[in-house]
Design a protein that fits this description.
Number of strands: 0
Strand content: under 5%
Number of helices: 8
Low-confidence stretches: 6-20
Number of domains: 1
Mean pLDDT: 79
CATH superfamily: Globins
Structural class: mainly alpha
Helix content: 55-70%
Radius of gyration: 14 Å
Largest sheet: none
CATH architecture: Orthogonal Bundle
Length: 142
């Protein structure tokens, strides 16, 4: 079910109006299953994305293990976990790919499916998507 895509798009649009990023919430880290849960969700999301012809090409020249580790650490940090914040923005890592909104949405679909498969509570899914939404501006080619 693709129930969050409109919410994510709205959150991304509204985040441009906000003066600061949403704050991490340690309860969210716990609801995602801590680091082991986050690692499972991100690994599954990337496995789904790498198998999806809509976006698989974007992962062709990447180290999948490293990518899973970096994204897991980023979600850990955003969700209030003990992982340090990385200073590098999303733009440098994605700019050369020329990703469009449909590519972004495909990966979000896979994230939603992975969270559903992991039994992540609905409210926790929404909170994570809200934290990730501001990254859309840096990931999608303008």
């Amino acid at each position: 079910m693709r129930r969050f895509l409109p919410v994510l798009g709205l959150a991304a649009a509204l985040s441009g109006c906000a003066s600061r990023q949403p704050q991490p919430d340690a309860a969210l880290f716990d609801q995602l299953g801590g680091m082991p849960g986050i690692e499972r969700i991100i690994s599954d999301t990337l496995d789904r994305s790498i198998s999806d012809p809509r976006v698989a090409w974007a992962f062709d020249n990447s180290n999948h293990g490293r990518l899973k580790r970096l994204i897991s650490q980023q979600v850990c940090n955003l969700s209030g976990g003990p992982c340090p914040r990385r200073e590098r923005g999303m733009g440098p890592a994605h700019r050369h790919l020329g990703l469009g909104e449909s590519h972004f949405n495909a990966v979000v679909e896979h994230l939603q499916d992975s969270m559903d498969a992991a039994g992540t509570p609905f409210r926790a899914q929404l909170r994570l998507l809200r934290l990730l939404a501001p990254m859309k501006r840096e990931i999608v080619a303008g």
